Amino acid sequence: MTYIDNSKGMPMMGEARVEDYLALLKPRVMSLVVFTALVGMLVAPGGINPVVGFIAIVCIAIGGGASGALNMWYDADIDAIMSRTINRPIPAGRVTPGEALAFGLVLSVFSVTLLGLATNWVAGGFLAFTIFFYAVVYTMWLKRSTPQNIVIGGAAGAFPPMIGWAAVTGTITIESFVLFLIVFLWTPPHFWALALYKQGDYGAAGVPMMPNVAGEASTKRQILAYAVILALSSMLPVWLGFSGWLYGAVALVTGVSFVYLAVRLWRAPAGIVMRKAARSLFTYSLSYLFVLFLALLTDHVATSLGVL
Question: Same domain, yes or no, for 134 and 37?
Fold first, then answer.
C-alpha cells in the first residue's frame, strides 16, 4: 500500500522515527488513562509496594498505548480523510500498517503478562479485556456501525481506575465501579461535543457519530442528559462514604459547571454560535476528569494524614 506525504504530496514508505511510534500510543489519551488508573490504585484500601505500583502503572500505560496503536492500524483509512487525524503516522506514510499492528500486539502481550506477574491476574486479565474491548469491540465493530459507538465503546476508557484498584486489592468493588461509572458517563458528552463542531469530518469518513445520524438537536439534548447524570454520579463517592467534603465540594462545583455549559449548548442556535458552545464544552471536559480525580486523591491523602 502506498501512502502520501500530506505536506509534500510525495509517496512515502514507512520512514518511521521514534516520535512516530510514540504518536501511535496516543500519548494525550494515555495520560488520562495513567492518571485515572493511578488514582484508583492510590485510593484503594490496603496499599501497594511502590516498586510494584510503578510497574503496574507502566503496564497500564503500555496497554493503553497498545490499544491506541491497534486503533490507528485499523482506522488508517478513515484517519486519512479526517482533518484532525490526517497527519497521524500511518496515513502520513511514516509507519506502515504492518509495523503498527506488530507494535500494538507486542505491547499488548508484554503489558498484560508483566502486570499479571507483578500484581495479580485479576488486574492482568482486566487489562487484556480492556485492550480487546477498545481494539475489537469499539474500533472494529461499534465505531463504524452505530451512533452509540462512543456510549458503549467508552467503557474501554473507563476501565483503568478499576484496573488500578484491582492491582492493589485483586478484586472489583462498588467503589471501583463508581470510578468507572464517572469516566463512562463523561465520555459521550465529551466526544459528542467534539463531533458537533467536527461533524463534517465524521460525515466524510462515514463514521456514524450522533450529530450526523440523529441531528444536532437530538445530540444536544442527549449531551445535557448525560451532563446531569454525570454531575449526580460524581457525588456517589461522598454518598457511599469513600470520600469527604473536599472532594464533594469540587465535584459539586465542576458538575454544576458542566451542566451549565451543556445547557448553554442545548439553547444555542445552529451555526457558529452552536459550534462555539460545543467547543467550549469540549475544552472544559478535557480538564474535568483530571480535576475531579485529583480532588478525590487529595481528599484521600488529607483524610489519611488526619488533615480532614
Answer: yes
The residues that bridge with 5 in the sheet, in sequence order, are 10
Q: Which three cell numbers stand for residue 148?
A: 452509540
pLDDT digits (tens, 9 = 90+) for 176-203: 999 999 999 999 999 999 889 877 777 7
Using the 8-state DSSP alphabet, how is residue 3 labeled? E
pLDDT tens sequence across 52-70: 999 999 999 999 999 999 9
Amino acid at 281: L
Question: Nearest 10 degrees: CA dihedral of 89, 94, 96, 101?
Answer: -40
Please state, for a pLDDT cut of 70, what percent of the chain lies above it: 95
261 and 241 within one domain: yes
Alpha helices in the chain (DSSP H): 18-24, 27-43, 50-74, 76-79, 97-118, 121-132, 149-153, 155-158, 160-169, 174-197, 199-205, 210-214, 216-233, 236-239, 245-267, 272-304
107: cell is 505491547
Lowest mean pLDDT segment, chosen from 14-23, 223-232, 236-245: 14-23
Same structural domain, 166 and 183: no
From the list 239, 228, 244, 264, the residue with the least C-alpha distance to 43 is: 244
- Residues 263-300 have pLDDT tens digits of 999 999 988 889 999 999 999 999 999 999 999 999 99
Last residue of a domain, one of 147, 170, 193: 170
pTM: 0.90
Residue 190 sits in which domain range? 173-308
Q: List CB contacts of 160: < 8 A, sequence separation 6 or more.
A: 33, 34, 36, 37, 40, 60, 64, 130, 183
Residue 296: count other Cβ atoms within 10 Å of its Cβ. Answer: 27
The helix/strand/coil state of 240 is: coil
pLDDT for res 207: 80
